[in-house]
Amino acid sequence: MQGSIASITTSYNGIRLLSRHIDALLAQSRMLQEVVIVDNGSSDGTGTFLAERYPQVTVLRLNVNAGTAGGWAAGLSYAAVKKKHDWIWSFDNDSVPGPDLLEKMLAGAEALISDETIGMLAPIPVEPETGFRHTPQLIDGSTLPRQRSSPADECTQQPVCFVKAVIASGCLIRRQLVETIGLPRVEFYMDFFDIEYSLRARLAGYKIALITSCEMGHTIGNTRKIRLLGKDRVWVRQPPWREYYSARNLAYAAWWMPQLNIRKAAVWKRIFHRMPRLIMFSDMKFAHLIKMIQGTLDGIRGRLGIRFRPGA
């Protein structure tokens, strides 16, 4: 594929992770035209470290932690809107792409690149420790008009499949998509912002292609294997403040963004499914439950913005 590709990485106090991540980007067999790190208000010396160790990397310094939503928006604004790169490869700083991942993604999507309705290309994120593959899943109760999605197991048997939504990390985004639908919603702060952006892209007529032969190491919280209803499953352990944003942003989308067509019943279903799991497997049961309830109520009331920060 001809054209300019830049990577953007959102990092908050990620100095211990950045070397491995940036080295993986610089080692790509398909060279990136620019590597951009969004220093999201870090206090661990990230800026000094990057200046000394990686002078070839572009650093966008935010004065405060704007969350992954704000960091992603800042990166897309710079790489797509200001610098006009044709494609933007987005990451969290704990993602480690293989040395030929970009080349393989472009090769897998070669027949699709010329289709300007392809707005996103994505690999399958895989947990490094457990090997769990985060294949795309539908949001329960959510449908878009006149569009149907394949189940994840059927989808991944095909070289390329079109999905409803993907996470931001590892996703290649076409510049024209950003110019058409704008930037991610920074007021979501954390969680669900990439799902909302995916759904917004599809409503604008863009497709999201999953390149099923491509996998990328990516950690979503701290994961461990659990046994539930006679089956081995993966439990993602996250701090209570993350539980707040997950619940709030989904509830907000269901109550205040009717264009996404996310049913309110999906919110209650998530609560009743997740509540017993939090009680059984969470390390801080009461704190997680309180944050989930707070988030759901704030979402229903239409309250967005930053209420809890990392470490809360």
With strands numbered from the N-terminus, the spatial order across the biggest sheet is: 3-2-1-4-7-5-8-6
CATH class of the largest domain: Alpha Beta
Give the beta-strand count.
10
Assigned CATH architecture of the largest domain = Alpha-Beta Complex
Report how far apart the termini are.
Answer: 45 Å
Strand coverage percent = 15-25%
Shape from CA axes? globular
Radius of gyration computed on alpha carbons: 19 Å
Sheet/helix structural class: alpha/beta
Q: What's the CATH superfamily of the largest domain, by name?
A: Spore Coat Polysaccharide Biosynthesis Protein SpsA, Chain A
Task: List the domain count as a whole number.
Answer: 2
SSE arrangement, N to C: EHEHEHEHEHEEHHEEEHHH
Q: What is the count of helical runs?
A: 10
- Largest sheet properties: 8 strands, mixed
Query: What is the CATH topology descriptor of the largest domain?
Result: Spore Coat Polysaccharide Biosynthesis Protein SpsA, Chain A
Helical residue percent?
25-40%
Spans where pLDDT lies below 50 across 5 or more residues: 138-151
Strand and helix layout:
Layout: E1 5-11, H1 15-26, E2 34-40, H2 46-53, E3 58-62, H3 67-82, E4 87-92, H4 101-108, E5 118-126, H5 152-155, E6 160-162, E7 172-174, H6 175-181, H7 193-203, E8 207-217, E9 222-228, E10 231-237, H8 240-256, H9 264-281, H10 285-301
Parallel strand pairs: 1-2, 1-4, 2-3, 5-8
Antiparallel strand pairs: 4-7, 5-7, 6-8, 9-10
Helix pairs in contact: 3-6, 8-9, 8-10, 9-10
